[in-house]
Amino acid sequence: MKAAVLYATVPAAGNTPGTGSYSESRPLLVQELEQPEPRAGELGVSITYSSLCHSDLSVVDGSRVRPLPMALGHEAVGRVVSLGEGVSEVSVGDHVVLVFVPSCGHCRACASGRPALCHRAAEVNGSGDLLHGPALLRTPAGERINHHLGVSAFADYAVVARESVVVIDDDVPDTVAAMFGCAVLTGMGAVFNTAAVIPGQSVAVFGLGAVGLSAVMAARLAGAASVIAIDPNQGKHQLARDAGATAVGTPDDAGRLIEEASGDGVDVAIEAVGSAGVIASCLERVTRGGAVVSVGLPHPSAELTVPALQFAGAGKRLLGSYMGDAVPARDIPRYLGYWREGKLPVELLHTDTRPLSEINEGLDALATGQVVRRLFQA
User: Fold this and answer.
1) In the 3-class helix/strand/coil scheme, how is the chain assigned residue by residue?
2) Whole-angstrom Cα distance, residue 299 to residue 303?
3) Per-residue pLDDT of the chain (378 residues; tens, 9 = 90+)
4) Which residues contact 280 (CB under 8 A, 6 or more apart)?
5) Which of 21, 46, 306, 332 is deepest in the core (most CB within 10 A)?
């Protein structure tokens, strides 16, 4: 099998003296590995397309600390090619979307209907193992290679837990389905599940990557009266309009656009940047009783300092949303239904497709805002 493996982190290109582009430093090594077989509770998937996300980039630059070496990639689509013992409700040949939280079904979070916060999944995702056993991948020299979020999708093949896949219909193009396991699930879930936006409310989305643009689409689907999209990269503004935004601007425009649309603040602000400063700004931009949904992943060292009185004094809420508080087996088919009805233009997120050999160049393109979602074929 072929996979892209990270052996050492590289500081964010251009942000540290002496660092160049990722295409120069080439932190991800695409190499041939021995192909493992699935164990009990697992299955083998032939990956057709994988998708590059900022969460992958944050592992490469070290802002999300993960055990190395690690085979990266957590958003993908493929076909089941083999089944381990005890796997049910999935067959060889099934079309599947891979998801990055393989919920155990038994912990407190799963039992309460919040599988995105599965305790066991958080443990194994952090250690680089799989839900049903230790890491399977090995370097050519026999050294352990850790799995990324139970998926390791920058590859032509992956062994994953049964709980890491959702079976979808054959008619969904792989270039569409590839983006449902993270970007669409997270952005739409932040609106539908975490914020529970209702018709007539006003929504502002800060950060127009694939997750933020998915949140824009969801806000329009939810019936929001105004959807304000904010990003410093003006190259993304037309995408936001096409996704359903009623107003678009840079951070300097945010106050004016929000005041014009909803007076003293929006009902819901979605933070999809991964910045403590933006979270604080969002709290200032919501009305009394409004909610800020934090979707982005700030650096672990980042701290949030905000006036405490705005919570009890103004009834404001700050809500964390991991994987959009999704129940993947419920939400992915639901969102694909919106896509079939022409209500969810997910194709807008797909910038282009490249061979896996160009994965390092893809890191540069994502880091500099040239792409929203670049898909890869091994």
Assistant:
1) CEEEEECCCCCCCCCCCCCCCHHHHCCEEEEECCCCCCCCCEEEEEEEEEECCHHHHHHHCCCCCCCCCEECCCCEEEEEEEECCCCCCCCCCCEEEECCCCCCCCCHHHHCCCHHHCHHHHHHHHHCCECCECCCEECCCCCEEEECCCCCCCECEEEEEHHHEEEECCCCCHHHHCCHHHHHHHHHHHHHHHHCCCCCCEEEEECCCHHHHHHHHHHHHCCCCEEEEECCCHHHHHHHHHHCCCEEECHHHHHHHHHHHHCCCEEEEEECCCCHHHHHHHHHHEEEEEEEEECCCCCCCCCCCCCCHHHHCCCCEEEECCHHHCCHHHHHHHHHHHHHCCCCCHHHHEEEEEEHHHHHHHHHHHHCCCCCEEEEEC
2) 9
3) 999 999 999 987 554 444 569 999 999 999 999 999 999 999 999 999 999 999 999 999 999 999 999 999 999 999 999 999 999 999 999 999 999 999 999 999 999 999 999 999 999 999 999 999 999 999 999 999 999 999 999 999 999 999 999 999 999 999 999 999 999 999 999 999 999 999 999 999 999 999 999 999 999 999 999 999 999 999 999 999 999 999 999 999 999 999 999 999 999 999 999 999 999 999 999 999 999 999 999 999 999 999 999 999 999 999 999 999 999 999 999 999 999 999 999 999 999 999 999 999 999 999 999 999 999 998
4) 304, 305, 306
5) 332
Q: How far is CA 164 from the centre of its chain?
A: 14
Structure tokens at 360: 């390092």
pTM over the 0.85 mark: yes
DSSP-derived pairing of the beta strands 28-32 and 95-98:
unpaired
Tokens of 125: 């995702």
| Orientation angle between helical segments 254-262 and 276-285, nearest 10 degrees | 30
Whole-angstrom CA distances from 338 to 184, 188, 221, 335, 348 are 12, 11, 9, 5, 15
